[in-house]
Specification:
alpha/beta; six-stranded parallel beta sheet; two-stranded antiparallel sheet; 15 helices
Length: 414
């Protein structure tokens, strides 16, 4: 490998990291060096930010690979060993120095570090852990660190990642076992799930210890996450929804991320020639939200699909409401929170406001118009003090009425 300077390495390895979607920084413990005699950084500051975490904070992370060289040959991966891409590799010290330099210049809040597999899984995991250890122990770095761990590495090395990182993630890669066996034959679902299970137990043990001993060290306070590639195999949206629910239930995942498959140069013949619509990825995130925040069971989300696929032209909650119209209309002045959550167009904040307002007076349609983006979307599904949908809920053309019209985007729009 030709010698590259750090700037050229950064160009290559930051670009190579763009396919990893699981880099939000929400949910970690509050930590700051303000007023202390040593240490640097904070998990609370804003910095110069470019993305939003699920809790609403604007965040930015230095998102890079330690190396894009890899001994594995996963068909869907741009960095597989048979891929014809330019390779680069950071040393652990170079990553540490870059992170500190970017943080001191107020460019970032923390580090998201992943890697291809070099030499062995254990060797690579040692290098990843060394970056986090050095930042924490040698430099007193109190900012955010997210480490991608390697499931077939020694469990002690994976455990060490949790002692230094705020969040760890182990990618499940593909939604189905046959898909993983076909497209990533060198990876094992048993190893992946075994590592996830060990990490869950370590996180729970640390939380229990913290309840009894104030001096107990934090362990991956932002939990663990994972990512699935969408559209590289034949898995339906229903398969993906059920798999995500299983991961949340069994391993206590904080987030399951979805990444639409992107065709790569010199691709394997077993891969599709076209990427799936990006809207498919968006609909899966919406379905994920329904299960996590709106009380929908996985089977209810799957019931909203057409032959296993979520509609692209309408959101999953509306798709469910149109299929189960017998559940509507819902009286906004009487219905429990759980039923209000199921009304298309009503979010959790709007429902909270409805519950507060109706303690003092009855809500009218105008009140709801001030709480939602589109009152037209909710009218067929609700009853208010001055509104009843009559036959609108059962109208044969209701879906057509509520489907947003396709718009031609302007090529040179500001």
């Amino acid at each position: 490998m030709a010698q590259l300077d750090v700037q050229k390495k950064l160009e290559i390895l930051a670009d190579a990291a763009k396919y990893d979607a699981s880099c939000a920084s929400s949910g970690t413990a509050k930590r700051s060096s303000a007023g202390k005699s040593s240490g640097i950084g904070s998990t609370e500051g804003m910095g110069i930010c470019h993305a939003y975490a699920p809790d609403g904070r604007c965040i930015s992370l230095l998102k890079i690979l330690l190396t894009n060289s890899c001994i594995f040959d996963c068909h869907y991966c741009i960095n597989r060993k048979s891929s014809n891409v330019r390779r680069a590799r950071f040393t652990a010290k170079e990553v540490v120095d870059l992170t500190l330099a970017f943080y001191k210049r107020n460019y970032i809040e923390g580090l998201f570090l992943s890697s291809g597999i070099i030499h062995t899984s254990n060797y690579t995991m040692e290098q990843l852990v060394e970056v986090a250890r050095s930042l924490r122990e040698d430099h007193g770095f109190r900012g955010y660190i997210h480490l991608k761990t390697i499931p077939d590495a020694d469990p002690e090395l994976v455990a060490a990642a949790g002692r230094h990182a705020d969040r760890v993630s182990i990618n499940v890669e593909l939604p189905t076992v046959p898909g993983l066996a076909r497209l990533a034959p060198e990876k094992s679902i048993d190893q992946i799930e075994g590592a996830m299970g060990d990490m869950k137990l370590s996180i729970l043990d640390a939380r229990d210890a913290k309840k009894h001993f104030k001096s107990a060290p934090r362990y991956a306070p932002a939990g663990q996450s994972t990512q699935m590639i969408v559209g590289a195999d034949s898995a339906t949206d229903g398969d993906i929804v059920n798999r995500a629910s299983n991961l949340y239930d069994r391993f206590g995942m904080r987030r399951v991320y979805y990444s639409a498959f992107s065709p790569i140069p010199d691709a394997s013949a077993v891969l599709p020639l076209k990427r799936p619509p990006l809207m498919r990825e968006h609909r899966l995130y919406q379905s994920d939200w329904l299960m996590r925040f709106y009380g929908f069971a996985p089977k209810e989300v799957v019931a909203a699909t057409d032959d296993g696929m979520l509609p692209l032209d309408i959101d999953p909650k509306l798709a469910w409401a149109l299929k189960f119209r017998e559940s509507f209309p819902v009286d906004v002045n009487r219905a429990p929170r759980e039923m209000l959550w199921r009304v298309p167009g009503l979010g959790t904040k709007a429902v909270k406001a409805i519950l507060q307002i109706r303690r003092h007076r009855k809500l009218r349609l105008d009140d709801l118009a001030r709480l939602t983006v589109s009152v037209a979307k909710i009218r067929p599904f609700i009853v208010a003090a001055d509104w009843r949908p009559m036959f609108l809920t059962d109208a044969a053309d209701l879906r057509a009425r509520l489907t947003p019209p396709a718009k031609q985007m302007e090529l040179f729009a500001a």
